[in-house]
């Protein structure tokens, strides 16, 4: 029997790299995204070429109906849920100084990054608890956080707040679900080459050139996927509520 993994925001960037890696690990993968499936066909064809068993569901985690449909259709298609990777997230549409941040932007970012993650985790956790245990534990949940959970960016405060909250979501569900045989952990990417960071390429190129990052290069989505893969494996069943920075050492305090 194969494990079934849900990867939100899995049609591109970090999410796609995670979906691909979990598929190569032997999971059957459900990709959940807002993208029109026709626009992702080339990426999906590559999964098929790698003999990955995948299924696409279109929707958004900020919708209660979308979250419920994701769980329902996953169980209908594959029979169970063993892994949830909460990767879907957004940055502010416009970077603004903290004194100019709007309530509308805050509601959008926190609604997707924090509220959506929390309530999808709740829904999936209930499904996991209800299932017969057939693997080393009942489930693995991995939240894709950010170095911004701890690093201040005053031009995108809503994003930092949303990711700091995701860290507490990780802690809370790790505590609550440990007796159920479900482990919950977090990966905190740093500067990863994705669509989200493409708008500030010049800024991060300079930081890398100036030696801000001990590992002096851009991170790749595959760097994140590798850690997620480990967290979702049967080698990680006695570790919960923890996080790993995937940031080239950016978190290290230096003199």
Descriptive account of the structure:
This protein is an alpha/beta fold and 255 residues long. Helices cover 41% and strands 15% of the residues. It contains seven helices and seven strands; from the N terminus they run E-H-E-H-E-H-E-H-E-H-E-H-H-E. The chain has helices at 13-24, 41-49, 64-78, 103-130, 157-177, 201-209, 221-231; strands at 4-8, 28-33, 54-58, 83-86, 139-144, 182-189, 243-246. It has a seven-stranded parallel sheet, with helices on both faces. It is globular and about 50 Å long. The mean pLDDT is 96.
Sum this structure up briefly.
41% of the residues lie in helices and 15% in strands. It has 255 residues and is α/β, with parallel strands linked by helices. It has a 7-stranded parallel sheet, sandwiched between helices.
What is the count of DSSP helices, taking H or I runs of 4+ residues?
A: 7
Mean pLDDT: 96
Q: Structural class given helices, strands, pairing? A: alpha/beta
**Computed CA radius of gyration, to the nearest angstrom:** 18 Å
* Main beta-sheet strand count, sense and barrel state: 7 strands, parallel
Helical content class: 40-55%
Strand order of the largest sheet: 3-2-1-4-5-6-7
Which of globular, elongated, flat, extended, rod-shaped describes the shape? globular
Poorly predicted spans:
none
Order of helices and strands: EHEHEHEHEHEHHE
What's the total number of strands?
Answer: 7
Separation, N- and C-terminal Cα atoms: 51 Å
Strand content: 5-15%
């Amino acid at each position: 029997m194969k494990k079934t993994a849900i990867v939100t925001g899995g049609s591109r960037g970090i999410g796609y790299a995670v979906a691909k890696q979990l598929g190569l690990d032997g999971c059957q993968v459900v990709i959940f995204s807002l993208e029109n499936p026709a626009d992702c066909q080339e990426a999906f064809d590559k999964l098929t070429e790698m003999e990955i068993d995948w299924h696409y569901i279109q929707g958004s985690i900020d919708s209660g109906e979308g979250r419920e449909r994701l769980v329902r259709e996953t169980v209908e298609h594959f029979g169970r849920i063993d892994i949830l990777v909460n990767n879907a997230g957004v940055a502010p549409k416009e970077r603004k100084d903290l004194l100019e941040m709007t309530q509308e932007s805050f509601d959008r970012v926190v609604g997707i990054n924090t509220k959506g993650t929390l309530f999808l985790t709740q829904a999936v956790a209930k499904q996991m608890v209800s299932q017969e245990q057939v693997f080393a534990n009942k489930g693995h949940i991995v939240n894709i956080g950010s170095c911004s959970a701890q690093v201040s960016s005053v031009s995108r405060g809503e994003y930092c707040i949303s990711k700091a909250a995701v860290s507490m979501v990780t802690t809370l569900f790790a505590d609550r679900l440990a007796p159920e045989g479900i482990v919950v952990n977090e990966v905190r990417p740093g500067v990863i080459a994705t669509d989200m960071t493409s708008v500030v390429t010049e800024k991060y190129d300079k930081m890398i050139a100036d030696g801000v990052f001990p590992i002096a290069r851009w991170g790749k989505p595959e760097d994140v996927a590798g850690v997620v893969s480990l967290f979702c494996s049967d080698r990680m069943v006695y570790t919960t509520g923890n996080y790993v920075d995937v940031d080239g050492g950016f978190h290290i305090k230096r003199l």
